[in-house]
């Protein structure tokens, strides 16, 4: 049996050796960090907006007191990134019947169907794609769920066209954008004639919040009824508010009374002010300096065709969720005297609009 002092001597000799070996042995390397998940090549999204409406007053007596629910727009969108250079979009849209008399199920149709080739700051798109002016104004104002912008509402142009679209950004900070669109001029419908359309747009965003935009188009139409348009837009955007002023002029050949040329002008003012993190007050006023051609056929908000008018809306956007908005609003149209000296009755439509997206 070993004595305690011998055991202590052995431990004393072994401890320094063990400590030396431990000091020379490097700690194990940390585990590799997890690799970031790659973004999926495709994305599915959509939106829906509709209203409960009540016709409190209208220039057409038969529409007064009509009320109900309708869905004004449904989008179902598929986006796919093929590579850094190529991407595509397929979008279906469906709408409720907005003429106050039609019934039946909503019929979906292709709203977007395009392939984009991106080269640096420039992109070439082929297919059914947004027209530059309507897309630009809707993006700046952000309240398409309440109402279409003037070009779209008064049917000066379609929000889509089938053809070739060249877009890009210019300058070191890429604050200047351009767009050139060569298309059929038939909207989302099929080509049925030899006519074509050309659209051009230039916009610039200043560092201080000001944005300026200019637009022009020429649309060849059958039987010499060509259309050309010029437009100017100025907007200012801050953190809690934005406002814009838009002027448009359009000439339509040989479509006026007796085959005369028809000139149309409008001036539109828009503003949105965020009064709390979840509440924004929004409003717009359009002055139509001429009667609206075929105004009675405009869905959801028919216009009297014989008199100049002032159209506007005011609403309160309540954000229930970042993707869910409840927007009580009122639309109104006041008419000037017509050529016969009588003024059409005022249109008043209170609505509660629900907008959600995913």
Description:
This protein is mainly beta. The chain has one domain (39-357): Porin (Beta Barrel). It is built from 3 helices and 16 strands. It has helices at residues 4-24, 132-141, 150-153; strands spanning 42-54, 67-81, 86-94, 109-119, 122-130, 160-170, 176-183, 197-205, 210-219, 227-237, 241-252, 262-276, 279-288, 309-321, 324-335, 347-357. The chain has a 16-stranded antiparallel β-barrel. It is globular, with a radius of gyration of 31 Å.
Q: Estimate nothing, just give the exact number of structural domains.
A: 1
Number of strands: 16
What's the arrangement of strands in the largest beta sheet? 1-2-3-4-5-6-7-8-9-10-11-12-13-14-15-16
User: What does the main sheet amount to?
Assistant: 16 strands, antiparallel, barrel
Q: What is the rounded Rg?
A: 31 Å
Helices, by number, come to: 3
Question: How confident overall, as mean pLDDT?
Answer: 91
Question: Separation of termini?
Answer: 82 Å
CATH topology: Porin
Q: What's the CATH class label?
A: Mainly Beta
β-sheet strand percentage = over 45%
Structural class assignment: mainly beta
What is the succession of H and E elements? HEEEEEHHEEEEEEEEEEE
């Amino acid at each position: 049996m070993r004595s305690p002092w011998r055991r202590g001597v052995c431990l004393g000799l072994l401890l320094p050796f063990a400590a030396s070996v431990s000091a020379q042995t490097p700690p194990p390397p940390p585990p590799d960090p997890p690799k970031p998940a790659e973004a999926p090549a495709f994305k599915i999204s959509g939106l829906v907006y509709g209203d409960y409406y009540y016709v409190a007053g209208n220039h057409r007596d038969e529409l007064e007191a009509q009320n109900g629910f309708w869905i004004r727009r449904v989008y179902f969108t598929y986006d796919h990134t093929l590579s850094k250079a190529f991407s595509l979009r397929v979008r279906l849209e469906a709408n409720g019947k907005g003429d106050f008399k039609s019934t039946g199920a909503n019929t979906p149709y292709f709203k977007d169907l395009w392939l984009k080739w991106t080269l640096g700051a420039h992109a070439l798109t082929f297919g059914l794609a947004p027209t530059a002016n309507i897309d630009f104004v809707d993006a700046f104002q952000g309240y398409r769920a309440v109402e279409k912008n003037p070009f779209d509402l008064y049917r000066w142009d379609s929000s889509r066209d089938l053809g070739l679209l060249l877009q890009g950004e210019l300058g070191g900070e890429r604050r200047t954008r351009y767009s050139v669109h060569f298309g059929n001029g038939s909207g989302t419908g099929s080509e049925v004639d030899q006519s074509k359309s050309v659209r051009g747009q230039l916009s610039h965003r200043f560092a201080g919040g000001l944005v300026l935009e200019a637009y022009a188009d020429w649309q060849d139409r059958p039987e010499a009824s060509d259309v050309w348009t010029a437009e100017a837009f100025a907007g200012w955007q801050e953190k809690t508010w934005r406002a814009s002023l838009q002027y448009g002029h359009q000439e339509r050949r040989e479509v006026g009374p007796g085959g005369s040329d028809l000139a149309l002008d409008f001036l539109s003012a828009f503003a949105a002010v965020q009064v709390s993190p979840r509440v924004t007050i929004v409003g717009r006023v359009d002055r139509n300096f001429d009667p609206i051609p075929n105004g009675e056929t405009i869905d959801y908000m028919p216009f009297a065709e014989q008199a100049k008018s002032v159209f506007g809306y005011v609403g309160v956007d309540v954000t229930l969720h970042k993707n869910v908005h409840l927007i009580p609003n009122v639309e109104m149209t006041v008419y000037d005297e017509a050529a016969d000296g009588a003024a059409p009755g005022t249109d008043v439509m209170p609505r509660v609009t629900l907008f959600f997206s995913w």
